[in-house]
Write a structure and sequence with these properties.
- This protein is mainly β and 689 residues long.
- Among the domains are: 190 residues, Cyclophilin, CATH 2.40.100.10; 85 residues, Sandwich (Immunoglobulin-like); 134 residues, no CATH class.
- It has a 36-stranded mixed sheet that branches. It has a ten-stranded antiparallel sheet with strand order 8-9-12-11-13-6-5-16-7-10.
- A hairpin with a 2-residue loop joins strand 14 and strand 15.
- It is flat and about 90 Å long.
- The relative contact order is 0.06.
- The N terminus is likely disordered.
Length: 689
């Protein structure tokens, strides 16, 4: 039995065979619109567990959902893009179960859409590509009872079952997508056509693409959409490659300390297991992804059998332990009390003569909480033996501190000091945040990958800044770093006295004033921004030295600039007092682009070779500019220097022509002087506005 929609259902005129001579239209795979998002309905709370708790199983569907999808989700993977269909499981259970039989049995795989009528329907589910000429219908299950309801009309982007005329309960495998409002027609004949789902996730664009194809009367089919001309072949039909049920949400899970808390998934069930005789802490992160790829994440902490030890006032005068690699760690605290929270296996404590020794295997200090301190509070943590390094979790002080010295500690947690910190010393900082009031001295031997917040940051020496944002409300003193990555930003609301970068500066740095910046490496995709205005007097950048190359970077000042020296410049800018919209372009085109009468005293491009390429220098007033060797060919794109006046500019073109101009302050005269020099500047320009 061949199932089809009766021709009288169409609201358009009968389609004649003349369409077959139309120019074929290629099927475009249209961009899909994102319409929904995974949602966290109930966040996990942090938890504290005793030693050796029982494992837990948690259904993540009770915590996460996709508010736009409540029914079964089926994806038709076609050679023109996906079609995602949400089924109306509760409203049309018989029809949904019938359709899913064909999906899960694979009968819809490698079938094709054999009928498409513009502004009406697209029909499929009847024929496999292996039987186009001649056409043989796919195997079918028994017919399904009609479940039409006026509450589910044949509206655009809905899916309904096809059936034999005059028999409301004859639907088997064939279905169609409504591409227009067909409610007046299809709701009112043959018992109504059962709508059992809707197209979601923006995939109606695939239906639009199919409807945009030319339709042919070919290979025994009327109005068959083909990618190209007739006859119909397995290569030019619109094919459903696979039909499959897809989860509304998928999940991934990670435990930061799997030896303490194991986190795995069984479908949508989260299974938490706990290490035998283990103490410790772990962050469990769950990510839910909806069928369009959008995600939502929840992270919670589980503390397992942690052992608390008191240090300082009311506790031990000293605490000792040995970590997993044999490093012997010793803690002393002055003028405060602290609770030390340890994790490990078979953790135990003994105290003798005021010294508490923590024993067990895989010991780790997960959390240190300091209270009742003040300006004389000092926490000193030393290490010897092993690798002379130890891991340290969260450190929290509810008062200011004089010293927090842990030069052998790799801080994986957050550090929070509620007040000023006179001195801090660590091996590395890789936790979520480091915050304090005024920090007088900070030393980190290794990497810094954390969000740092302080009211002031004075003498600071750190290793590689590999990530995070520094937010300093006040001034910065002498700052020495190995390098600054492109994932990092150092932002000071006030002045920075001295910034020394031993390697490359690839991130963003901002301050009101930089008195001195010295970069021994280069700048790459970096931004140096000085916010001091001309009205505030003084210079936003007093001195900047970059020994290496400046590439794809911007040196920006709102006001005046002193001396700048760089090794080379490529696709970069040095601007002072230029409108924000000009950043990233090479040459301001109007005096109005200068928002302030800012001056750059001098710029020197120093390295040998062709060292000034496709870059821009702009300020209302320029002093002495030495460009080095200029590559004048920039594929027709102008670059160079833009100003109101310039004291002196000199350099050499890549062709070997030297130039030197002094006291340019009149556009007309400057143009004549430059032209008279006979130098071929190509795309390079010296423009007076």
């Amino acid at each position: 039995m061949i199932e089809k929609l009766p021709q009288v259902m169409s609201r358009r005129p009968f389609i004649s065979g003349s369409l077959a001579v139309d120019q074929p239209r290629l099927m475009e795979q249209l961009e899909q619109r994102t319409l929904m998002a995974a949602t966290l309905n109930q966040a996990f709370a942090d938890a504290v567990q005793a030693i050796n708790p029982a494992s837990e199983t948690i259904d993540l569907n009770t915590r996460f959902s996709d508010p736009d999808i409540s029914g079964t989700l089926v994806r038709l993977d076609t050679n023109g893009g996906n079609i995602d269909v949400e089924l109306f499981d509760d409203a049309t259970p018989l029809t949904v179960n019938n359709w899913l039989q064909y999906v899960t049995s694979g009968l819809y795989d490698d079938t094709f859409f054999h009928r498409s009528i513009d502004n009406f329907i697209i029909q499929g589910g009847g024929y496999n590509v292996s039987s186009i000429n001649p056409a043989n219908h796919i195997s079918t299950f028994g017919p399904v009872q009609n479940e039409f309801s006026t509450t589910r009309s044949n509206l655009p982007n809905t899916i309904a079952m096809a059936k034999v005329g005059g028999n409301p309960n004859s639907a088997t495998s064939e279905f169609f997508f409504n591409t227009a409002d067909n409610s007046q027609n299809l709701d009112n004949q043959n018992g109504g056509f059962t709508v059992f789902g809707r197209v979601v996730n923006g995939t109606s664009s695939t239906l639009d693409a199919i409807e945009g194809l030319s339709e042919f009367n070919a290979s025994g089919f009327s109005n068959i959409p083909l990618i190209g001309g007739a006859p119909a072949t397995p290569n030019n039909v619109v094919k459903i490659e696979t039909a499959r049920v897809v989860p509304t949400l998928t999940f991934t899970v990670n435990s930061s300390n799997p030896d303490v808390v194991g986190a795995t998934l069984n479908g949508s069930n989260l299974i938490l297991t706990y290490g035998a005789d283990r103490s410790g802490s772990s962050d469990v992160t769950i990510t839910a992804t909806d069928s369009t790829g959008r995600t939502v994440t929840d992270t919670f902490n589980i503390e397992l059998g942690l052992v608390d030890v008191n240090l300082g006032r009311g506790g031990a005068k000293e605490v000792r332990y040995v970590d997993a690699d044999g490093t012997q760690v010793k803690l002393k605290l002055k003028s405060a009390a602290a609770v030390l929270r340890f994790g490990g296996v078979n953790v135990a404590t003994t105290t003798a003569k005021g010294i508490t020794t923590v024993t067990g295997s895989n010991l780790q200090l997960d959390e240190t909480t300091i209270s009742g301190g003040g300006s004389k509070t000092e926490l000193k943590i030393t290490a010897k033996g092993g690798d002379k390094r130890f891991a340290l979790g969260n450190v929290v002080s509810n008062t200011k501190m004089k010293k927090l010295l842990a030069s052998s500690a790799n801080i994986f947690g957050s550090v929070s000091v509620n007040g000023n910190l006179s001195e801090g010393s660590f091996a590395s900082l890789t936790g979520d945040r480091f915050q304090a009031g005024s920090i007088s001295k900070l030393t980190v031997k290794g990497a810094v990958d954390t969000d740092l917040t302080a009211s002031r940051l004075s003498n600071t020496s750190v290793g590689d800044v590999t990530g995070g944002t520094w937010t300093v409300a006040g001034k910065g003193g002498k700052l020495t770093v190995n390098s600054i990555s492109d994932d990092s930003a150092l932002v000071f609301a006030n002045d920075v006295t001295d910034l020394q970068v031993k390697g490359d500066l690839n991130g963003d740095v901002q301050a009101r004033t930089f008195k001195n910046i010295n970069v021994r490496g280069g700048l790459n995709v970096a931004v140096i921004n000085a916010t001091r205005t001309v009205a505030e007097r003084g210079k936003g950048i007093e001195k900047l030295t970059v020994k290496g190359a400046v590439n794809l970077s911007a040196i920006v000042a709102s006001g005046n600039v002193g001396k700048i020296q760089v090794g080379s410049m490529s696709q970069s800018t040095i601007f002072a007092g230029v409108t924000a919209q000009e950043l990233g372009t090479f040459l301001p085109a109007s005096p109005l682009d200068f928002v302030a009468i800012a001056k750059i005293d001098s710029i020197t491009v120093k390295n040998r070779g062709v060292n000034y390429v496709s870059s821009g220098i702009a300020a209302a007033s320029l002093g002495k500019i030495k460009l080095g060797t200029v590559l004048t060919d920039n594929s027709g794109v102008p670059f160079g220097v833009s100003t109101d006046r310039i004291s002196q500019i000199e350099g050499t073109t890549a062709a070997g022509q030297k130039f030197k101009f002094k006291n340019l302050n009149d556009p007309t005269a400057a143009t004549a002087t430059i032209a008279a020099s006979g130098v071929n500047f190509g795309d390079a320009q010296i423009t007076l506005l």
